[in-house]
């Protein structure tokens, strides 16, 4: 098997260098993927001048085209987002809106440019909502051409009304850690298969 690429889009609201639990979980996913011949990098979206819109390039210094180029070079996408009011972060929603443009981007055989790319999600928060956020994000990514592997999500939520962040909660090898390893195993397996045998032309 050849080495594949993964891109983590960290959708925290906090610019660097502020600590981010979403970034921590995203980096843990990258570490787990590395065990399956997958290299990768993490981009904290809020650090870039990404404009609102639904095109591949909103012009005038838009930061999305550079991020999109990294996405096009990757076979696995990890969207790492916190939960706010039971919803994906506003940064995550902006990313999904920008990905709407992929519905118009096709290869020479008429397939969406995202075909063959595997989507996963990593969610952190201090209240319930991880399943809802996972459902929203994975459905949107599937709509724009990404393939979703079995058990393609990992998450951690703290006690309701609590103040403990994922980064402060200590080791979680049998819960979030187990889900992260399963995500990496299945996403890498599927991405390797799709790299060898792409979807047929429509």
Automatic annotation (TrEMBL):
Top-level taxon: Bacteria
UniProt cross-references to InterPro entries, sorted A to Z: Flavoprotein-like_sf (IPR029039), FMN_Rdtase-like_dom (IPR005025)
Signal sequence range: none
Domain NADPH-dependent FMN reductase-like: 6-151
Name of the protein in question: Flavodoxin family protein
